[in-house]
Amino acid sequence: MRDRFNEQLEQLNVELIKMGALCEEAISAAAKALLENDAKLRETAYAVEREIDQSERDIENLCMKMLLQQQPVARDLRAISAALKMISDMERIGDQAADIAEITKDIGENSVTGRIPLAEMARGAIGMVTDSVESFVRKDLELAKQVISKDDEIDALFDEIKRELIELIGKGDSGEVCIDLMMIAKYFERIGDHAVNVAEWVEFSMTGQHKQ
Fold first, then answer.
1. What sign does the CA torsion over 83, 86, 90, 95 have?
2. Per-residue confidence (pLDDT) for residue 45, from 0 to 100
3. Within a domain: residue 212?
């Protein structure tokens, strides 16, 4: 019985890694669609978001099987419960990547995008998502804490971008584009928040404590 549970737990880890990689791909495609004004990358973000939705359903089914068939207790139960919470946040990350891609349709080529650190913000968000899932698989509490601490960096970048865009709007420079870019920056900030949520559920799975 325990051997079967360990096999399912390993499968859960593999599926979570795949879902995390899909989230990374979706964010990257959406960011590049913006920075390179590439319609194909925009469609890639949409397609990957659909794969993320399917991955959420598959992992949810696996977790339910483990709960019903194995009746885990203590740390094993926390791990499965945390995984169910994590995939909800990861699904939202996919949604927000698709939302970013959607906004890029209205932006096109412009002189503003390259003047604000959106690319840096995207890289930071991708790194947080990747590390949060990795911390679960490796049972690495320190890595989970690093993800949580990096949220301040993403928030600082958002504040910087907001200030710069407000200044540009005040000068009458590409007002509609600036508003769209501010929305995109907010989505990246929210992706960082979801990565923090994932890391906090990792912390819960290992310690039994969850920050409210």
1. positive
2. 97
3. no
